[in-house]
Amino acid sequence: MSAHHQPPNSPVLVSFPDKDALQTNLAAFISKAQKDSIDKKGRFTIALSGGSIPTILRGLIPDNQIKWNHWQVFYVDERVVPLDHPDSNHRACAENLFSQVPIPPANIHTIDPTLLDDLEELSDSYEKKLIHEFAQKDAARFPVFDLILLGMGPDGHTASLFPGHELLAEEDRWVAYIDDSPKPPPKRITFTFPVINHAARVVFVAAGKEKVDMISNVLDHPEKGLPAARVKPVFPGQLYWFVDDAAAAKVDYPRTPFKL
């Protein structure tokens, strides 16, 4: 996919008639991304968010081209709650996808539920999981995920990176904690922008008319500096926006026809 009349490495905006079409085409995009990665290096590293992402992932279930045993799954952010808690991003992803596909449990990297009382230790232990997966293999300053899936909140936040928060400026840590999230639950851990922006592919997923003003703010007015607008993958990484027409109704930003 390439954007028309946009500087190199600009976000690619693809819009679909409805959420079902978005889900189907996103599943095809993920399937191709995992095939490319596995063919090249024998593994596929993906990081998932909460929000609407877990339900959208259901589109992957019928795809028999997916080599689940080569997936390594991480969470872009996670609420500091037990893994079976209703607020847990892991629980939502497990219920919507992992419980229905043959992915090895050892390949799904959750927070350590024994460390919920110590945010520093919890975020350090999650960072160590990233180091174990990436540092020996890639020797990069930051992990390079094959794909990161992001949502966007009504305030323009993404992951657990909120407007005006000091974590927006974090440049060293891979995983950081927050104990004052403006939306509950207050305690979370999150990837930092350097990790998100070193991925090979980052995809924002947004559907519904309630997203329409914020998408326009992020894509048409990046100078406002909203957290979602700070997602700018380092070349050759590429940022995609997968949206439905209702969410994209006010966007001036050019759309790109979807093709794999």
TrEMBL record:
The keyword Hydrolase applies. Its EC number is 3.1.1.31. GO terms for biological process: carbohydrate metabolic process; pentose-phosphate shunt. CDD domains: 6PGL (cd01400). It is an enzyme of class 3 (hydrolase). Pathway: Carbohydrate degradation; pentose phosphate pathway; D-ribulose 5-phosphate from D-glucose 6-phosphate (oxidative stage): step 2/3. Keywords: Hydrolase. Gene3D superfamilies: 3.40.50.1360. Pfam families: Glucosamine_iso. It catalyses: 6-phospho-D-glucono-1,5-lactone + H2O = 6-phospho-D-gluconate + H(+). It comes from the Eukaryota. Residues 17-241 form the Glucosamine/galactosamine-6-phosphate isomerase domain. Hydrolysis of 6-phosphogluconolactone to 6-phosphogluconate. PANTHER family: 6-PHOSPHOGLUCONOLACTONASE (PTHR11054). Belongs to the glucosamine/galactosamine-6-phosphate isomerase family. 6-phosphogluconolactonase subfamily. This is 6-phosphogluconolactonase. The lineage of its organism: Eukaryota, Fungi, Dikarya, Basidiomycota, Agaricomycotina.
